[in-house]
């Protein structure tokens, strides 16, 4: 489904990503790991159109995404969560999902709003509530997100990303700022959502226990390059990976 | 060559005057993180007090200098820091811009109230005698004391400040404090002291600049300082608000190119009358479009910004069912009482005032939609209102089109201009966008609105009763009131429906996080253009309505200063809600009318009062009215809760 070939990106004279190849099959969960500065988030940003690569291609189901802007990629079926929270503080949890759902279904039509037809339909509310139920946010559905804690905000981002039923979910360090218990719960939730919805997932994460629990396959990056790829245990024992993480030969 | 030098050299001191301000703006931004729109007003305050002490009270020059520059300059800086900017989170660009604007609007209006009206004749020079020609450049370019003061001060200021910022630990701490005051404190540095020092330094520089440049004009007037500020903003923008040296060089170039072109261009040409006065604004637009650093001004975020408390919910969300019923009933009672009063016993003078308030309310709704809902800051709303008014006026005058039909076309024209402005500034955010819209407003002020073909000249366009249906000018009728009420209800209802609908949700998402909104598929460029276009149309409708009420459409009624004041006023009362815009419109004219009964000196207080109100915006971005509504709602809910608990408590007590 997702095919990245020869992806390269430099910031000034510093190469962030160099000649990276990456694939995610439909329904497959892939972990992208590596030490700080390995280029993981840059890859994610290139896939989602927030950064344009210097070289290489990003294809979704065989279609070259080229220089499509982020919003067009989201409408093509890519969802994303962010390492640094990107929520809409003054909107309620439910409104977050309504926004995402409306974008995927029919967008904003001014005339409908002016005729008072802008309120969510029953069908939309049912779709939103089912996702809220799946992630455990029903109780806080009408609370403005600014009033929620970090863990709940991460769930809001996740719910917002999946309510439009994306084919590919990009998650960038979802456990960042969460405690061990919350991380374990989030890992379980990601697994169940991915299986239930059959979407592909590219998970960037530092918590290797979480990665092992969630992904089918792992890709390890170091200094902008892919140094290993395969099953979690097999890859983590590879010398190149030990060198990247531990600095030992 | 001699002719070229003869035109260019006099531009150097002008350029140096711009440079003094440009360097001050960059210094303030580099040491406090604030683009201080109030810098020119600070300079004016020191110059005003200096001239007032010398002229009116015969103080010795050195004593007046000590008081106005050494004490008042840093003092104002410290007050700004302690009571205003320190309270604003570093990520809240809108609050910083609005607070700066409130100073720009408020200080020049406040000074005559405190010190009395009357033009202060040019202040004495403190360094060189302005009337003495010290030497000649080339063969016949005289260099007098004013030239020397400006050039020497610009050079000395630049060198001292660059050395301070680059080579001292205080300079390093100031620059670090801009990134994050809280991180600086974690490093064991007394961050409040560092920031206060930076503000005091900037205040001192502003005061010094103001007093040094005061003798360049015959009288000390705020307008001269604002003009200097505009060119300085363009120079500072070219330097991406980073390099004081680049800002100084560009400022000097602006002065030199302006004077050189002025020398060569025929005075009757379009280039001389329209393009030349707009030259600094064109430079500003060019910088905003081409300097990449200006697109990233708002990207630097405080890593500890997430520790800020969440914004309070609007009062409407806090209301229980009972209070909600009372508020809704009260609203309808008030509305009927207002309409009934206007149609029966209201004195004509007050009816006129309230009519004007309704027209302003429609214009202010454009700010509600654009800033309150979409989070985009425009400093050109009065300009957009003027575009619609002039379009309707010219269509009536030349084509014979009914003024109301022309108003619709005018609103469409304002909408198109706003959309073009949005497209031109798609890459800009926050401060960059504010500067772009300000540049557009200034361009219209100096190059487009004064043109005979647009406004009919400085006198403006006087409306004829034959242009208007419905007997709108009839002095005893209520036709205008009914028209204004209808337009206000339609516009307010439209904005409320948009806010509650899908477009409103998309705009609120964009306001909350552009990255997040794009990430779910919201087409940000389109939403932004749509928000600007709708806002332009609303401002246009309001402008046309105001034109009918005032019967004369004059360029001065739609200048950039009013745009600044409009934004400050709406944000002061409450930018997030439709009722906030209406309260702002009515409040503006009612305060103005009430001040007519006050002593003459206090009659210019309207903008000061709103500017003072805007100072609370730092602490309460929801606006004063919304803040008070929330407080009263909370009190009422507490009383109700207590009343509901009381019977249960008393029944349990005896048992």
How are the secondary structure elements laid out?
The complex is a heterodimer of chains A (249) and B (655).
Chain A (H helix, E strand, L loop, with lengths): L1 E10 L2 E11 L4 E5 L6 H9 L6 E6 L2 E2 L5 H6 L2 E4 L11 H13 L4 H5 L7 H14 L14 H13 L5 E5 L7 H18 L2 E5 L3 H7 L2 E6 L2 E6 L1 H5 L2 H8 L3
Parallel strand pairs in A: 3-8, 3-9, 6-7, 7-8
Antiparallel strand pairs in A: 1-2, 1-4, 4-5, 9-10
Helix pairs in contact in A: 3-5, 3-6, 5-6, 7-8
Chain B lengths: L1 H7 L2 H22 L6 H19 L3 H23 L9 H23 L17 E5 L3 E4 H23 L1 H11 L1 H6 L4 H23 L8 H17 L5 H21 L5 H6 L3 H12 L24 H4 L2 H23 L4 H26 L7 H19 L3 H22 L5 H19 L3 H4 L5 E2 L16 H22 L1 H11 L1 H6 L4 H27 L1 E2 L6 H14 L4 H18 L9 H11 L8 H29 L3
Antiparallel strand pairs in B: 1-2, 3-4
Report what the structure shows.
The complex is a heterodimer of chains A (249) and B (655). Chain A is of the alpha/beta class and 249 residues long. Chain A has 2 domains: 1-77 and 166-249, 3-Layer(aba) Sandwich (Rossmann fold), CATH 3.40.50.300; 87-163, no CATH class. Helix content of chain A is 39%, strand content 24%. Chain A has helices at 40-48, 70-75, 93-105, 110-114, 122-135, 150-162, 180-197, 208-214, 232-236, 239-246, and strands at residues 2-11, 14-24, 29-33, 55-60, 63-64, 78-81, 168-172, 200-204, 217-222, 225-230. In chain A, the strands form 2 sheets. Chain A has a 6-stranded mixed beta sheet with strand order 6-7-8-3-9-10, sandwiched between helices. The two termini of chain A are 35 Å apart. Chain B is mainly alpha-helical and 655 residues long. Chain B folds into 2 domains: 2-290, ABC transporter involved in vitamin B12 uptake, BtuC (Orthogonal Bundle), CATH 1.10.3470; 315-632, ABC transporter involved in vitamin B12 uptake, BtuC (Orthogonal Bundle). Chain B has 28 helices and 4 strands. In chain B, the strands form 2 sheets. Chain B has a two-stranded antiparallel ribbon. In chain B, helix 3 runs antiparallel to helix 4, helix 4 packs antiparallel against helix 9 and helix 18 (403-424) runs antiparallel to helix 24. The longest helix of chain B is centred in the C-terminal third of the chain and has 29 residues, at 624-652. The radius of gyration of chain B is 26 Å and the shape is globular. Mean pLDDT of chain B is 85; it is low at 649-655. The chains are: A alpha/beta (249), B mainly alpha (655). Chain A binds chain B through residues 48, 50, 69-72, 74-75, 79-80, 82, 85-91, 95-96, 98-100, 102-104, 107-110, 112-119, 144, 146-147, 157, 160-161, 164, and chain B through 306, 310-311, 313, 317, 494, 497-498, 500-506, 508-509, 511-513, 515-524, 527, 530, 534.
